[in-house]
Design a protein that fits this description.
168 residues, alpha+beta, 7-stranded mixed beta sheet
């Protein structure tokens, strides 16, 4: 069986992320932090918006041990909402493309911005943290919506962590 490989690139192509293996989960997050960060990043001269028309930021969760940055790592700049925040939204400074969300704490995954995936991006599995959305009553039916985090997401995260611990 061949290992799945996917590439994510910035708009101008100077930064690329190589992903090995399948993704953990694909979700549009509507939390207040993702919306605030999207507004800040979108205020930069950017080629495209980071959230959809309904306030969701689309992410593909991927294991932290299965990604590399073969080109442009020196062009990535962290954007934090607050000093001391454990989350960094990494933006390609060459074209202000939001690339991924990383954690300084023990989280075992990164969240790639879905529209950065060059191959066929995974289908959206859920809209999460919709309690923060101004569109909560009118979200599209492209995926199930959850006010918090669905059990399927939590189970997939636990399963991926177990696979990492056992070297799979």
């Amino acid at each position: 069986m061949t290992e799945q490989r996917t590439t994510a690139t910035c708009s101008c192509g100077q930064v690329s992320i190589a992903l090995e293996g399948g993704h953990i989960y694909c979700a549009a997050c509507h939390c207040d932090d993702c919306q605030s960060a999207a507004h800040r990043i979108d205020a930069l001269p950017s080629p495209e918006p980071t959230m959809d028309a309904f306030g969701g930021t689309h992410y593909v969760l991927h294991r932290k041990d299965r990604y590399t940055i073969p080109s442009g790592s020196g062009l990535l700049r962290p954007h934090r909402l607050r000093d001391g925040s454990p989350t960094r939204r990494m933006v390609a400074s060459c074209c202000n493309s939001a690339m991924f969300l990383a954690f300084d704490n023990a989280q075992h995954w990164i969240s790639i911005y879905r529209f950065r995936i060059q191959d066929k991006a995974p289908e959206l599995q859920a809209r999460i943290a919709t309690r923060f959305s101004d569109h909560a009553g009118g979200l599209p039916a492209d995926a199930p919506s959850y006010r918090t985090f669905p059990m399927a997401l939590i189970m997939q995260l636990l399963l991926s962590r177990a696979r990492m611990l056992f070297g799979r």
